[in-house]
Design goal:
The complex is a heterodimer. By secondary structure, chain A is of the alpha+beta class. Chain A is 30% helix and 28% strand. In chain A, 54% of the residues are buried. Chain B is built from 16 helices and 23 strands. Chain B is of the alpha/beta class. Chain B starts with 8 loop residues before the first strand and ends with a strand. The chains are: A alpha+beta, B alpha/beta. The interface between A and B is large, with 42 and 40 residues. The complex binds iron/sulfur cluster (2 copies).
Chain lengths: 369, 504
C-alpha cells in the first residue's frame, strides 16, 4: 500500500451530491455529467461515488466492498477466511468492471453481503460496532486488502482516474440509488493509490470533502482519545471520524454538529439571547478540539439524509439547488445547472449553516422501514 | 574575614556629564554611591553594585555606565569565575547560596529549537486585521460529551457542567505572593488582569482584605504548604483555588519569607504575627500521597460549594507525566506545570540550577500521557516557567498547553532587570521589597498600564502567528504539533516533543 508521505495530504477537489427526497432511485448518469462539468477541479489522481439504495435485494445485510491491491491472491484468501470466521456470508461476487475503461492497474474489487456472527467478548458489541471492528482489522492487519465501504444497501466505487473514468470502469450508469455523492481529487502531494480516493466510508456514513484542515493535529489527537486512529493521514478521515463520533455515537443532529465543527464567532455568540448564548458557549467550550479550522466543504450522507457544510468563514463555499424533490449540493453552481438548468431555487449558504436533505416521511418508511 | 571575592560590576561615570545632582545616591539601595563629608563629591564603591541599572536609567545627565566587571581569573572553561566565586562565598559564609529569579544556566532552550508553520497556496492564511481571530480560552474540566434534548426550536443541555474560567487571552499571571512582592506590584498585576480579562494568581501570601471585592473575581488564590491567609472568605471571593505543591525554581523545598518583610499589613493578610519568619514547609504535611491530595481538592471544593475550579501546581520533574495523570484522577480541574526556568523570590542556588526539567518537554509528555489515558479533556494544562515572548506562548500551546502563566516577563514589564537580588528585600525597582521608600517607586496604575500593553502586544502577535497558519481560533492550535518542526534536536528530543524535524 502506498501511504501518503507527509503529515497529511494537501488537496483541492470538486464535490457533488444529489438526493431525491421522495426516495425515488435514479441512475448514475446525472452525477457523472455534473462531475465532467468540474473536470478541472481534479487532476486524474482520484475519483469516486457513493450510492444509497443500491442493493434493495440484500438491504438487511452489510455490504462490504473490498479492494485487493495488485490482485494479491493470498490477501483475497485471507479476507475470505476472515469474513467466513466472523460473519455469515449470504452472497459474494466480483464487482463487475469495464476492462476498456481509461484507468491504469486497477486492483481487484469484490463485494460480500454479510451478517455478523458475534462470539465471546464481541457479543457485547452492537452490530455496527462489531462491523467497524472487523473492518479495521482487515484494513490494518491484512496486507493489500482494504474495505472501501461497509454499510447496508449502499456502496462506494472509487479509484485513481478522473471521475468519469472511474464511472466508466465501474459502469455506474447501471446502478440506481436515491442519494449519489461524488468526489474528484487534486492531491498535490500524494501518489495516487486506489484506496486513497474518496468518498471515505464507515458503515453507511460517507464523506466527500474538499479543503485543507489547519486544525488537523488538534482534531486528530482529540479523536484518538475516543479510539479513532487516523491511519490514512487525510483530512477527510478526520472529518469522517468527527461525524461518526458526534452523530452516530453521541446522537447529536447535524444542526448541532454544524455549530461544533464550524461554530459562530464569539462576537456573534456574545450578542445572542441568554439561552442561545449558553448553548453556543457550552458547545464551543466542550467541543473546542473538534472545531475544524481552515478552508473546507463537506458533503456527508447516510441512509435517509444528505447534508452539506462549509467552514466557519466560508473559505470554500458550497452551492445548493432545489428542483422538486431533488436537492443538489456542489462545489460549483455551473455543475448543478449543467444537469438541471431550470432550478426552483439556488443559493450559497453561510459558513457553518448546514444544508440538509432528508427523506420525506413516506419515503423514509419505504426506503429504511 | 577579608573577602576574596572579585566585584560583579563596575560603575563608570562620564565626568564631564555628571553635575553632582545626587540622584544616584538616592536611587541606589545597595549603598554604592555616597556623598563625601562636605557634599562636594559623590564617591563610588562598585564592589556593592548588583547591576540593577536603576541609577543608569534615572541619571538625568546620562552620565553612568554599569557593566560586568572586566577583571577576571585566568580563563578556565571548567573552573569558571562563577564556580570560583561561589566557593569563595561559601568559604567565607558557610551557608546555602541564595538567589532570586529563574535559572540563568546555559541549558538547551527547546523553544529556540522549534519553528512554526505558515500557510502557502493549498490553504489560505487569514488576515487578523480583516478577520476575527479568537483567543478566548476556557480553563477547567470538560465532560466526555454533551447530552442535548431538542424539542422543536428549544434546545436544552442535559449534561451537568463543571465550573470553567474564561480568559480573553491564554496568558495569566503566575503566583507571586504579596510579601515577596510589594503591595504596589501585587496590585498592578491584579489591576491588569481585571482590565484585560485574564486572571492573576495570588501566590501563597493571601489576598489583602481591601482587594477582595474588586479583584477576588480575577484572582486564583493559592493554598500552599504554609496555608498563609487561607480562610473561607479568601477561598470564596476568588475565581479559582490553586493548591501549590511545587515550584519550578525550587522543586522539593519550601519557602522562607524573612521576618523583616512581615510588616503589619502582611502579617494581617498572612494571618501570622508581625515580624516573624513565614516558613512554608517543603511538603504539605497533610499530603503525603495522591489520596491525601484528592482529599484536600475535595475539601476545597466542599468549602466553595463546587463552584470553583481547583488548580494543582507542580514543578516539572522527571516523572511529571505520571504525576499529572494522578492529579487529574485526584480531581484537579487545572494542572499547572512549572518548568525548571521558573522564577522565584528566593531559592537556594543549587536547587534552582540543578533540579527539574524544561517546560517544553514536560508539557509534551504530560499532554501525550493524558491523551493516551483518554483524560486530557478532564483538565486544562497551564505551562509556566520561563515563557519569554508570544512565540513561546504559541509553541507551548501547540505542544499541548491550554494557556500559560507568566511571572518573570510580567515583572520585567514592571521594571525588573533580572539582577537576581529579590531575596534581599532591597529591589531598586520597588517590586520585591517591603521598604516603603522603595515600594513607592512603582506606581500601580502605571505598572498595570505596562502589563496591559504587554498582554495586548503578545495577543496581537499570537493572532498574527495563528492567521499565518490559517487558524482563527486558539483552540485549533492546542496540541496541533503538526504546526511545529524541530531544528538542531536529537531523535529522542523530537520523540518526546512529538514533532518532526524541519524539512521532514
Ligand atoms: S543603582 Fe544598581 S546599578 Fe546603580 S550602582 Fe546601585 S546597584 Fe549598581
Ligand atoms: S524583582 Fe527587583 S530584585 Fe528581583 S531581579 Fe527584578 S529588579 Fe532585581
Amino acid at each position: 500500500m502506498i501511504k501518503p508521505r507527509d503529515d497529511k495530504e494537501f488537496q483541492g477537489c470538486g464535490i457533488f451530491g444529489v438526493m431525491d427526497r421522495s426516495g425515488k432511485r435514479f441512475n448514475g448518469e446525472m452525477i457523472v455529467e455534473a462531475m465532467k462539468n468540474m473536470h478541472v477541479r481534479g487532476n486524474g489522481l482520484g475519483g469516486g461515488f457513493a450510492v444509497y439504495g443500491l442493493y434493495p435485494k440484500y438491504k438487511d445485510y452489510y455490504c462490504l466492498h473490498v479492494m485487493i491491491q495488485d490482485w494479491n491472491e493470498e490477501a483475497k484468501m485471507e479476507v475470505d477466511r476472515f469474513l467466513d470466521a466472523n460473519f455469515d456470508i449470504v452472497h459474494d461476487e466480483e464487482i463487475p468492471t469495464n476492462e476498456d475503461a481509461n484507468v491504469e492497474n486497477p486492483p481487484l474489487f469484490w463485494r460480500y453481503f454479510v451478517s455478523p456472527q458475534k462470539k465471546g467478548e464481541d457479543k457485547k458489541l452492537s452490530d455496527d460496532d462489531y462491523v467497524i471492528k472487523k473492518v479495521m482489522h482487515i484494513n490494518t492487519k491484512i496486507k493489500d486488502a482494504y474495505v472501501i465501504s461497509s454499510g447496508k444497501n449502499m456502496g462506494v466505487f472509487k479509484g485513481v482516474g478522473f471521475p468519469e473514468d472511474i464511472a466508466e470502469f465501474f459502469m455506474i450508469e447501471k446502478y440506481k440509488g436515491y442519494i449519489w455523492t461524488a468526489h474528484s481529487r487534486f492531491p498535490t502531494n500524494t501518489p495516487g493509490w486506489w484506496g486513497g480516493a474518496h468518498p471515505f466510508c464507515i458503515l453507511d456514513w460517507t464523506v466527500v470533502h474538499n479543503g485543507e484542515i489547519s486544525s488537523y493535529g488538534t482534531n486528530k489527537r482529540y479523536l484518538e482519545m475516543f479510539g479513532y486512529y487516523c491511519t490514512l493521514q487525510t483530512d477527510t478521515e478526520v472529518m469522517a471520524y468527527a461525524f461518526d463520533l458526534l452523530m452516530r455515537r453521541q446522537g447529536l443532529p447535524i444542526e448541532i454538529v454544524a455549530k461544533i465543527l464550524a461554530p459562530p464567532m464569539w462576537d456573534i455568540i456574545d450578542h445572542m439571547d441568554e439561552k442561545k448564548k449558553k448553548l453556543y458557549t457550552t458547545l464551543r467550550m466542550v467541543y473546542a478540539p473538534l472545531l475544524i479550522n481552515g478552508p473546507w466543504t463537506v458533503i456527508v450522507a447516510h441512509h435517509g439524509e444528505m447534508f452539506g457544510l462549509t467552514d466557519r468563514i466560508r473559505l470554500r463555499p458550497i452551492t445548493a439547488g432545489e428542483k422538486g424533490d431533488l436537492l443538489f449540493l456542489s462545489s460549483e453552481e455551473a455543475a448543478i445547472r449543467a444537469v438541471c438548468p431550470d432550478l426552483d431555487r439556488v443559493w450559497t449558504p453561510h459558513g457553518g449553516e448546514p444544508v440538509v436533505g432528508r427523506l420525506n416521511e413516506k419515503a423514509l418508511k419505504k426506503v429504511i422501514g | 574575614m577579608k573577602s576574596h571575592l572579585l566585584p560583579d560590576f563596575v560603575v563608570e561615570r562620564i565626568e564631564e556629564r555628571c553635575n553632582r545632582c545626587g540622584v544616584c545616591v538616592k536611587q541606589c539601595p545597595w549603598g554604592v554611591y555616597s556623598w563625601n563629608e562636605d557634599k562636594t563629591e559623590i564617591l563610588i564603591d562598585y564592589t556593592k553594585c548588583v547591576g540593577c541599572q536603576r541609577c543608569v536609567v534615572y541619571c538625568p545627565n546620562k552620565a553612568l555606565i554599569v557593566r560586568p566587571y572586566p577583571g577576571s581569573y585566568r580563563p578556565n572553561a571548567y573552573w569558571t569565575k562563577e564556580v570560583i566565586s561561589d566557593i569563595k562565598k561559601q568559604a567565607e559564609q558557610g551557608g546555602v547560596l541564595l538567589v532570586g529569579t529563574g535559572s540563568d544556566r546555559p541549558y538547551k532552550v527547546y523553544f529556540d529549537h522549534i519553528l512554526l508553520n505558515a500557510s502557502q497556496v493549498t490553504n489560505p492564511s487569514i488576515d487578523p486585521l480583516r478577520e476575527p481571530m479568537e483567543l478566548r480560552t476556557f480553563l477547567g474540566r470538560k465532560p466526555d460529551r454533551l447530552e442535548i434534548e431538542i424539542d422543536g426550536d428549544d434546545v436544552e443541555i442535559k449534561t451537568e457542567l463543571y465550573p470553567n474560567l474564561v480568559v480573553e487571552t491564554p496568558i495569566l499571571f503566575a503566583g507571586m505572593s504579596y510579601g515577596a512582592l510589594s503591595k504596589n506590584a501585587f496590585l498592578a498585576l491584579a489591576m491588569a488582569a481585571k482590565e484585560f480579562g485574564t486572571l492573576f494568581c495570588t501566590g501563597e501570601g493571601g489576598l489583602p482584605k481591601d482587594m477582595r471585592e474588586e479583584y477576588g473575581p480575577v484572582a486564583i488564590v493559592q493554598c500552599a504548604s504554609g496555608r498563609f491567609g487561607v480562610d473561607p472568605e479568601y477561598l470564596n471571593c476568588a475565581a479559582a483555588i490553586e493548591i501549590k505543591i511545587g515550584q519550578g525554581a525550587k522543586p522539593g523545598i519550601g519557602g522562607h519569607l524573612p521576618g523583616e518583610k512581615v510588616t503589619a499589613e502582611i502579617s494581617a493578610t498572612r494571618m501570622i504575627p508581625e515580624g516573624t519568619d513565614a516558613l512554608s514547609p517543603a511538603p504539605h504535611h497533610d499530603i503525603y500521597s495522591i489520596e491525601d491530595l484528592s482529599m484536600l481538592i475535595y475539601a476545597l471544593k466542599e468549602a466553595t460549594n463546587y463552584e470553583k475550579p481547583v488548580f494543582v501546581k507542580i514543578a516539572a520533574v522527571h516523572n511529571v507525566a505520571a504525576i499529572a495523570s494522578g492529579i487529574v484522577r485526584a480531581g484537579a480541574d487545572v494542572i499547572v506545570i512549572d518548568g525548571f526556568r521558573g522564577g522565584t523570590g528566593a531559592s537556594p542556588k543549587v536547587m534552582r540550577d540543578h533540579v527539574g526539567i524544561p517546560i517544553e518537554l514536560a508539557i509534551a509528555a504530560v499532554d501525550q500521557r493524558l491523551r493516551e489515558e483518554g483524560i486530557r479533556h478532564k483538565c486544562s494544562i497551564i505551562a509556566s516557567g520561563g515563557i519569554r515572548c508570544s512565540a513561546d506562548v504559541v509553541k507551548a500551546i501547540a505542544l499541548g498547553a491550554d494557556a500559560v502563566y507568566i511571572g518573570t516577563a510580567a515583572l520585567i514589564a514592571l521594571g525588573c532587570t533580572m539582577c537576581q537580588k529579590c531575596y534581599t528585600g532591597k529591589c531598586a525597582w520597588g517590586i520585591c521589597t517591603q521598604d516603603p521608600n522603595l515600594a513607592k517607586r512603582l506606581n500601580p496604575k502605571e505598572g498595570a498600564k505596562r502589563l496591559v500593553n504587554l498582554l495586548r502586544a503578545w495577543s496581537l502577535e499570537i493572532k498574527d502567528m495563528l492567521g499565518g497558519m490559517g487558524i482563527n481560533a486558539i483552540e485549533s492550535l492546542r496540541s496541533n504539533r503538526e504546526q511545529l518542526r524541530g531544528i538542531g534536536l536529537e531523535e529522542w528530543e523530537l520523540r518526546v516533543l512529538g514533532i518532526k524535524g524541519a524539512g521532514e
